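Supplementary Methods, section 5.1.

A reviewer requested that the exact input to the structure prediction be made available. We therefore reproduce it here, unchanged from the version used in the analyses.
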Amino acid sequence: MIRKTTCVLLCLSMLFSIFAAGCSNESESASAQTAPIESTQATMAPPENETLPPETETEETTPPETEPEQTEPAPEPLVLSADTLTFTAKGKAQKVTCEEFDVEDLFWSIEDTSIALVAQGSVIALAPGNTVLHVYYEDREAACQIVSEVDPEEKLPYIDPYYYHQPLLRPPVVKQEVTDYFDDVIIMGDSMTYSLYQWQNLYHGLGNVLFLVRGGVSLNSLVTGYRKFFYGGQECRPEDAIAKSGRKKLYVLMGANDVPQYGIEKSMELWDELLGNILEKTPDLEIHIESLTPVWTDAEYPGFTNDDFDAYNVILRAYAEEHGYGYVDIAPYFKDSTNGIAKDYCSDNLMHASYRGCDVWVKVLETYIAEQLEGEKS
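The structure derived from this sequence is encoded token-by-token as follows.
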């Protein structure tokens, strides 16, 4: 009985041990599954003498301040020998000089030429009143006050005509190189443009421009075929020469031989025919018309009057604008106080430009072209 009881107790003890071991294993397994996993980086200590980088924060960055545009400093003014000239007698000259330049290298201009006139720094009074003398060298300038206290009843003495034939308008200051532009340009005209052709042969200031010029040609003679241009070793009508050249820009000054003979209205009809013939052969041609320059005031040549040329230029400008052509207004730069061509800009006391006149002509062209190129960019 005792042996049987002992066996039962031993069996119960073994079962209890097995059950206790199983519970212990389940507890350890559960504990392993729920314990947090620590990051290796979080527990890694920094090396000695080294600190961890601070946490980066997103900062608003302000754009760098833009530097103001650099503007060219204003040119130094010219220094004249006098700030004011006072006159008490008509026709008595007073001289103004500039130490830096010879008088012929400067451009001289009087605001009111009915009060006073100037020729290369020599000023004379014609009538009472106040006006201003302006002196220019490229983009530098200076001014001198003119005070005329002359007696209005005083008889005007003999005045050298040279004073009356000085240009009124300062030539433009060219600020952009446009020589390459002329590689695609034709300049066409009569004997007036032939003067520019001769200037080009001497100074080569218009790059690789192509001239179609001939003395005595007119709008009428070119339309009828009575006159032609020489191109490629033979005579050609203008429309054929332009088409063969392959160039795409035409600058043309014509009409001086038409207006006196046919009048303005007929001359404009001839423009239509000439340009129509040209555009038929070269439809994408870019056309720029130039104004007629004035004639010498005392020229004894029938039909050539500045009043007619001025009226023609007004209509020519409107014609160019109506048809989408460019218009280069050269005429104002050639005028003197008599409304004729300035003496120094004329080679023959008629209408043909001197080399000095061609210098002004080229400056007007280059300034006009620079404005065209600037307009294309904007």
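Residues 1-58 have pLDDT under 50 and may be disordered. These observations are discussed further in the main text.
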